[in-house]
Amino acid sequence: MTMTAPTGKKRNAVATLATAPVRRKQPRQHKRPDPADLLAWYDRHRRVLPWRALPGAASDPYAVWLSEIMLQQTTVVAVAPYYAKFLARWPTVAALAAAPLDDILKMWAGLGYYARARNLHACARAVVERHGGRFPATPDALQTLPGIGGYTSAAIAAIAFDRPAVPVDGNVERVVTRLFALDEELPGAKPAIKALAAEIAPPQRHGDFAQALMDLGATVCTPRKPACVLCPWQAPCVARRQGTQDLFPRKAPKRAGKPRRGAAFVVLRGDELLVRTRPAKGLLGGMTEVPTTEWSATFDTDDALGFAPLKAAWRQRGERVTHVFTHFPLELVVYVARVPARTGPPDGMRFIPVREIAGEAFPNVMRKVLRVAGLHSE
Fold first, then answer.
1. CB atoms inside a 10 Å sphere around CB 234
2. Domains and their CATH numbers in the chain
3. Residue numbers annotated as active site
4. The pTM is what?
5. What is the sign of the dihedral through the CA atoms of 55, 60, 64 and 70?
6. For residue 137, which of 23, 192, 311, 366 sits 20 to 30 Å off, Cα-Cα?
7. Total Cβ atoms within 10 A of residue 324
8. Helix, strand and coil percent figures for the chain, each rounded to 5
9. Checking DSSP bridges between strand 272-277 and strand 260-269, what pairing results, if any?
């Protein structure tokens, strides 16, 4: 079969095809996170929390502040009963400021991170003394108050006063780092996360946006097995597209604290227990404890009774108390003794009725000691 060369219009068409530039497929432009999508989701799925104002209602700055202080390093489930007790007993910041610190520490006992309780009291007094009982509305002014840092000031300003601030907690860090697949490790990534969170914030509804981010991280964008199909930002989320959600946020390896050891001494005088108050500053400041040795990495249990507060027939309990603080794990051996009714307390110590244990400001580690000693602390 003989092939003929194209002529006329056919030749021109072939030439045009030969010389036309090759059109490359343009990369798909991925959608940016739209705050309106998140707010619409929040309006439908917002959590009902004791301290959260109902839709359309104004937030109470005192309630917002109290809840935010309690929620630091603590879960919503753990905080809810404490919040209710505090609000029932001290319904205003002025009432809390007028309360003795010891009463606040007793009410706080069991919630952990006890410096928060001392700062709570100091902050309430500062609000009353410096601001006439009204919380200031801006992040900068809020940060001048005891116990209020960058995150808490932004949360109060946004939620209580609808100021343009985005509080960045662990939930928000997780949402933002997944949205943008941010490779930088925490804690160094915090400034970048704050900048990205501010970028996607809306020009209004600042309090709702802050709470929406928190709710999204708490209920959908969870640390493990996030429910991406339910997420209002699933389309723009880079980590979801890459299937790398579980890799974010990236965190620098933590340095494990060196384990410490010590001994605790439970002294019973009839139906009374020997206790003392820890120094106001430092770990567990101002809390109640039974006498203990120092807690150190080099503590030798063979030397424990040399530090006992009284001479007595001490009996060592077989079970030891273990407790993990932020910077170190602790192990305590527990000794129990009964002393005669005429025995007086050593300097700086006092006897309290055993029936009042539940109402004392014992931290969790001391409640564990009392349990091992056979005393009920609840």
1. 16
2. 35-247 (1.10.340.30), 260-372 (3.90.79.10)
3. 68
4. 0.77
5. negative
6. 192
7. 11
8. 45, 10, 45
9. antiparallel
